[in-house]
Amino acid sequence: MPELPEVETIRRGLSKFIMKAKLQKTEIICPKSFIGTPVTGQIVQIRRFGKALVLDLDNHYSLLIHLRMTGQLIYDPKVKPTHDGDIPRRYAAGHPSDNFVAKLPNKQTRVILRFDHGTLYFNDQRKFGFIKVLPTSAVEQDSFIQKLAKEPWEMTARELYDKFQKHPNSNIKATILDQTIICGLGNIYADESLFVSGIHPLRKAGSLTMEETENLLAAARHVMDESIASGGSTMATYVKADGTKGDYLEQFAQVFRRENQPCPKCGSNIVKIKVAGRGTHLCPHCQRLSDD
DNA sequence: CTAGGATCCTGTCAGC
DNA sequence: TGCTGACAGGATCCTA
After folding, report:
1. Is A289 within a domain?
2. Quick one: which of A292, A252, A232, A274 has its CA closest to A3?
3. Within this chain, do residues A171 and A134 fall inside the same structural domain, yes or no?
4. Looking at the DSSP assignment, which residues form a beta bridge with residue A56?
5. What is the CATH number of the domain that holds A75?
6. A121 and A200: one domain?
7. Which of A58, A169, A216, A241 ranks highest by number of CB atoms within 10 Å?
8. What is the nearest nucleotide to A178, using C1' and CA?
9. Global confidence as pTM
């Protein structure tokens, strides 16, 4: 479930907690969730590629982490702060659930990473996510990383337009969810970007004008900038690095999970349909399929 | 090659 | 109360 803004929020927060920490032991509870051979070493860098997180160790190996739909990372420091202050007891991020405050490990814990000063739990209800060990030099050659397109801020409208022309009959929502076309959008930000730019999710990608493409790209940058600035989305969902909750969905989302509520632009009822196999929210008045 | 649907898993919730 | 099907901030595999 984490999309780019959530993973970026996780990256920033986790950096504060485990930068320079020494990974000493890996406990694999669910073999499917851990690919490769466990390693030990000190964390020297935390990077993000689209929705994937990479922990670089000082031994020239890296942990590539993808949370997919329901992954969570929860860090428990060994030494709890004795006085209040800003430091939380526990840092939790990813798919929202009671695991953030529950006793760990629990039924959904798939991997436990033991550090010198704390423990990082990888929980994942649906087991779609994974942690993969690979040489740091091979990270960018990884099949998933290597195929990723540019992020919205690095891409020009012309580049995006040209990509749309290569998938002329695909609907625009499926197209912008494709990480090899534009990187970082997931179901929330796809719906929000299409709403902000006034484009119906079922429009054919090849039918968008250059101006519409410019608007869509600007909208994608805008909604994700806004979300990163507010610490990611929530809805009992994402918890920021410092333990406080992000509030994108409550404060900024205009259509996502707002079916049967009035459109903020025109007051029409927001509807929910299915596009590209995903629940899709739109305003049928502001996002037209045709000109009538 | 593209486009769309099935699939990987577990859990929850609406509707009988 | 049980059962059943739909659905879920993702990505890949299979089919036509």
Report:
1. no
2. A232
3. no
4. A45, A62
5. 3.20.190.10
6. no
7. A216
8. C11
9. 0.93
Same-domain pairing of A106 and A178: no
A103 lies in the same domain as A174: no
Q: Which residue has the tokens 């909604």?
A: A223
CA of A256 to C1' of B13 (A): 19
Q: How far is the CA of A137 from the C1' of B13 (A)?
A: 46
Domain housing A23? 4-145
Instruction: Quote the tokens at residue A262.
Output: 């009035």
Check if the beta carbon of residue A39 is closer than 8 Å to that of residue A133.
yes
pLDDT at A229: 87
Number of other residues whose CB lies within 10 A of the CB of residue A277? 8
Domains held by chain A: number = 2
Residue A48: Cβ within 10 Å count: 17
**Residue A134 CB lies within 7 Å of the nucleic strand C:** no
Structure tokens at A142: 């990884």
Nucleotide at minimal C1' distance from the A124 CA: B10
pLDDT at site A92 = 73
Last residue of a domain, one of A121, A145, A169: A145
Report if CB A194 to strand C is under 7 Å: no
**Which positions in strand B are less than 7 Å from the protein's CB atoms?**
1-11
pLDDT 10s digits, A60-108: 999 999 999 999 998 888 876 555 444 456 777 777 677 776 778 999 9
* CB < 8 Å & 24+ apart, contacts of A268-277: A273/A201, A275/A171, A275/A173, A275/A174, A275/A201, A275/A202, A276/A171, A276/A173, A276/A174, A276/A177
Catalytic positions of A are: 2-3, 51, 278
Within-domain flag for A268: yes
| Domain endpoint, select from A94, A124, A145 | A145
Both structure tokens of A227: 């979300």
